[in-house]
Amino acid sequence: MPQNDYKNFSRTKVGDSFKRPVFIKAIEEKPTKTGDLYLTFTLLDGESEISANYFGKNAAQAAQDGLKAGVIADADIKVADYKGKKSFTVTDMTPYQGSEFKESDFIITAPIDADVMFDEIIQTLRSAGDDVGGTVTPVSELAVMILESFKKDFTTSSAAKSMHHNFKSGLIYHTYRMVKAAEVMCGVYHELDKELLISSAAIHDIGKIWEYKTDPLGSAELTSNGVLFGHLYLGANLVSQYKDKYPAVHPDAPAFDPEKVKLLTHIILAHHGIREWGAVATPAIPEACVLFHIDSIDAKINSYEKEYAKLRPGDVTQNTPFGFDGKIYKPVYKYSDK
To answer: For the residues 126-152, what does the mean pLDDT come to?
Structure first.
């Protein structure tokens, strides 16, 4: 998609009026204070998602005009200020009649190609493996087997419904950045077991494949398995299953170190840090402690990224975003020219 030809939502400023193709993700009909009906569109531009109000039109009229969820449209949009945030209003919208754009051009996805991230994660796991002179199979190979078994879902799934990395390929992007962070931490704190930390970083959230169902647009919904078990249990259970499957696939390979498998399981069960946040256990080893903190850091950074897309340089959030203790400021020196 020739994005340079159009202004993306995140790069607009208050007072802008612009026209561009958009993808209609959802439409909701709402009443005004006087009882009149208007529409709130959820729109995608391929980079971000916004809500935009369309006044003077109801759902039936929009449908008659060919405007519905799942179609591309040409939209005229105005940007205003509402309580310190950008507010978007659609002034005109018609179904897109051209052939230049397709649905995939508008889906929000990770900024790095999923296959590139996957290959790098596998390479990092293999380079971190320690076979102790050929006496054991590294637990990193257990992580490789798990990831390769579920590559398609792992590389396309969202990491959440509405929290951090809630977009297509969000799960692998979150995992990729954590594996990178784990490598750096091992270079600073040499007492950390690199193989154990990187292996746990690579599969700590693998259970989210079954905790959520991700649609082709990257939107996730909680599944019955997510309600009944949660991704910590689902991921830990997968380690147990594939520990037993590995010898059948690799009959000549030495056994895993049983303590390392146990600790890998522990780290997955403890990666939420405290029981109030859903941890099955609290971190009992340094690697579990480090994984909990880099998981939290990456989630927070993604939250900053999402809030910055809504803010003008020099502004602060109107409210305290979820998961933060105070408001967020967007620096002028970094973003005023973007």
So the answer is: 96
